[in-house]
Amino acid sequence: MRNFFNFLKSKVFFIQIGLAILVLILFVFFTLRWLSSTTNHGEFVEVPDFGKMSVPDMRKAAEEAKLRYEVLDSANFNPDYPRFSIIEQTPPAGNKVKENRKIYFTVNPSGYKKVSVPNIIQVTQRNAESMLRAVGLDVQRVTYIDQLGKDMVYYIKYKGKQIKPGDKLPKTSKVELVCGNGSITEKARVQADSE
């Protein structure tokens, strides 16, 4: 045990400790230099604003900025943006990122997705309007015909043509409801009396 304590006080021990510390310092220094050069430490690229760009223009701009990209589909059509243009990007424009960073894009589809017309025949006008709004359709106009059921929907029109429940229309389409006015025509009265 005494030899061990004498070794800890010897010149050889201090030289070995000094060499070990020097090797450790050199190892850390060269590791940090290597990491700095391989990760481009401190070098950033500013993300351009790709908003409203077409997909081909976006690809060209991303390659010029030395960025990778991935195009995501969009579920909702945005009428404020041109069709097939960029409506959203992650990370946003102006952020500083490393070269070769992947940017995610959401593209505006060609139009609104189609929705099924609900069965609103023989339903009151008020309930029909609620059911149509629930699926994303709007009532542009309500017209009345001589039918006994007041404010009851007898059929639906889209762009002047009669449509059936289950038909597909682009979301936000405007339809016309044809409802009864509560009166009955003389012809129908005569038919009812003759039966």
From TrEMBL:
Positions of the PASTA domain: 42-109
Keyword GTP-binding: no
TM segment ranges: 12-35
Sorted UniProt keywords: Membrane, Transmembrane, Transmembrane helix
Domain of life: Bacteria
InterPro entries per the UniProt record, alphabetical: PASTA_dom
Pfam families (UniProt xref): PASTA
Membrane found in the keyword field: yes
Protein name: PASTA domain-containing protein
Lineage start: Bacteria, Pseudomonadati, Bacteroidota, Flavobacteriia, Flavobacteriales
